[in-house]
Design goal:
The complex is a heterodimer.
Chain A: E1 2-11, E2 14-15, E3 23-31, E4 37-48, E5 57-62, H1 64-71, E6 80-85
Parallel strand pairs in A: 4-6
Antiparallel strand pairs in A: 1-3, 1-5, 3-4, 5-6
Chain B: E1 2-10, E2 24-29, E3 41-45, E4 55-60, H1 63-66, E5 77-82, E6 85-88
Parallel strand pairs in B: 3-5
Antiparallel strand pairs in B: 1-2, 1-4, 2-3, 4-5
Classes of the chains: A mainly beta, B mainly beta.
Amino acid sequence: MKIARVAGTVVSPISHPFFDGQRLLLCDLVDPAGAGADTAGGYLIAVDVVDAGVGDQVLICDEGTSARQILEIDTGPIRSIIVGIIDAIN
Amino acid sequence: MQLGRVTGTVVATIKAQGLDGVKFLIVQPLDKHQQDRGSPVVAADAVAMAGPGELVYYVASREAAEALEERFVPVDHAIVGLVDQVTLAQDSR
């Protein structure tokens, strides 16, 4: 899983039917050791199922089978999913 | 999933089984500011509505094939949505 910070939202009115009604957030990947530093502009567009907001530090699972398992579906072109909101990193 | 810009189309008459009728587009990966980032890829168009110039988001790896009607096909990038708007927070611009 990856640590990221929600940077913004992505609006997509026309998408694969699977994404209908799903909330998409653009998340900057952050380096856990670098106090929230950007990892060379890396980012992911992830489906949000935990009601994360812009500015939140989140945990992203970037793997298809796990993502489908969380959404309780057998098939679907999804890979990145926000699975938690991070309170603190020590 | 990542942002991309469709820059062209690819026509291939002879394709692997299961890819008949699938539209292929050239997609330039973008960073969050919609600037070019890395090398272009050829992606299957799973929304069947994307065209050159369009801002899209695409999925890579095995999940790309999941976007198509025939799911067990050799595809590693697929366009899964057209993007209308990307709104970034003030401090991440």
